[in-house]
Amino acid sequence: MLDLDVIDAPAVAALALEPIKARLLAELAAPASAAALAGRVGLTRQKVNYHLRALEEHKLIEPAEERRWGGLTERLMVATAASYVVSPAALGPIAADPERNNDRLSASYLIALAARVVREVGSLLRSARQQEKRLATLSIDTVISFRSPADRAAFSADLTQAVTALAARYHAEGTPEARPHRLIIASYPAPNGAGSGDGRSEGTNS
Description:
Blueprint: E1 5-7, H1 10-17, H2 19-27, E2 32-33, H3 34-41, H4 45-57, E3 61-69, E4 72-79, E5 84-86, H5 107-130, E6 138-141, H6 149-170, E7 202-205
Parallel strand pairs: 1-5
Antiparallel strand pairs: 2-4, 3-4, 6-7
Helix pairs in contact: 2-4, 3-4
């Protein structure tokens, strides 16, 4: 089972978003049979089997094992991933695109950037898995509590200066073996419950 999979096909996205099938996917974080699922979700075994066939056809679930009870064979199914993200690619031409927004300080531009991250990294991750390779990424996530708007503005200026200097130092345009990497830095008010923050950064690199 994958830890996460990105759905970019419209038909698969529609299937995964259907309430009953989404519930079955959640229940199949661990292998289970149609009979066991029927008791959990309050449907007949026949109806559960109908939904399971659709999920299996679109590769959202797969067989985990078979058990024999007398002359009967019972299949246990399991989700192909622990969690799923629907890529904006599933929306086709109506998907958010930062190229269609010139307001770099707007919330809609930030959301479009995040959508592009899901679309591009999802595609790169799928290709890396097919080649049995790791995809090199870097993520930094932290919460900073600014004392005042002036401090926030000063931080933004310092951050811009630091990133500009680092980009100039490491950018190797024209070097044959150089590989472009996209860098996105974003900031927005932290939702309630996100923590007050202590200035520390949590990063991952895979």
